[in-house]
Amino acid sequence: MAGAPFLAVDLRTGAGEPCEATLAHARATLARLPCPTLALVGPDLSPPATALVDGFDVLVGESRDLPPLFAAIRLSPLAATALVQLLRHTDGRDVHDGLIAESLTYSTLQAGPEFATWLARRRAGDPAKPDSGPAVLVERQGDRLDLTLNRPRRHNAFSAEMRDAFVESLRVVVGDSSVTEVVVRGAGSSFCSGGDLIEFGSHPDPATAHAIRSTRTAARLLAECAARVRFEVHGACIGAGVELPAFAARVVAAEDAYFQLPEIGMGLVPGAGGTVSLPRRIGRQRTARFALSGQRIDAATALRWGLVDALRA
């Protein structure tokens, strides 16, 4: 990738009083920079620094938090750049436009060198842990529909089979107004460990990957019926396991739940709708930091951020 992989600015040390034209130029420049932009901020920023805060991709309150972000960006500069450009592009757009942009970005990165490197280095998944029964259990009780992700031996990895079964159930919900409540859970020790790594890299080309992703998406359907949906999550909530619940009107997390977006380290961006759902819950800048860092957060932090709405024992 040509040029520097990121721009970092300490807004706490700003001096002088630039004119409005200079500030406007700086804001426009931040919006156009191709690389991730990070700002170190504090409680008492000057008015000019405050005017620039919203233009950065990531805000950091402590200098010690910057090196891990720098390292993550240097490891996957193409994916990191694609992430922040995508989040800027979709900011304020509707769900459909955001999901199309996400799919195109994700599919492009699947054909890129960073994902190829990750594929070559990763340890092959264990195919010897099949789960019996349907990938999604469906139970109707009056006006309520219970959906249970049902691959507990693989921590409910979101396979193509599970995606398709989940999509079919959500299509019923969207088309049937008599279903007034939908509750989504996961069987076993985890809610969902994200995309099934065994299937990663299995699409033959980016065009096919985009066609599949954009026509078989649970995210769009969840957005359509979000007011009727509650997720009850526990254990690992990784990748799709955090991106999909974020669409729902209510997310309740067990105290053992933890949340993570590992895709940047794979040379990808969140691809289950997270670049659309997460900014609506926690904001564009926090989403960028969460994804770039790959950090794991606990349930209490998720509640404080607004990623979940309540905790249960």
Layout of SSEs?
Elements: E1 7-10, H1 20-32, E2 37-40, H2 47-52, E3 58-60, H3 66-75, H4 77-90, H5 95-110, H6 113-121, E4 136-141, E5 144-149, H7 160-175, E6 181-186, H8 206-215, H9 218-224, E7 229-233, E8 236-238, H10 240-243, E9 250-254, E10 258-260, H11 274-282, H12 284-293, E11 297-298, H13 299-305, E12 310-312
CATH topology of the largest domain: 2-enoyl-CoA Hydratase, Chain A, domain 1
Whole-angstrom Rg = 20 Å
Task: Identify the CATH homologous superfamily of the largest domain.
Answer: 2-enoyl-CoA Hydratase, Chain A, domain 1
- Please tell me the overall pLDDT: 92
The first-level CATH class of the largest domain is given as Alpha Beta
Strand proportion, as a percent range, falls in 15-25%
* Secondary-structure element string: EHEHEHHHHEEHEHHEEHEEHHEHE
- Domain module tally: 2
Count of alpha and pi helical runs = 13
Which structural class do you get from the secondary structure elements?
alpha/beta
Strand line-up in the sheet with most strands? 4-5-6-7-9-12
Question: How far do the termini sit from each other?
Answer: 47 Å
Architecture of the largest domain, CATH level 2?
Alpha-Beta Complex
- Spans of at least 5 consecutive residues whose pLDDT stays below 50 are none
The total beta strand count reads: 12
Which term fits the overall shape? globular
Helix content: 40-55%
Main sheet: strands, sense, barrel: 6 strands, mixed
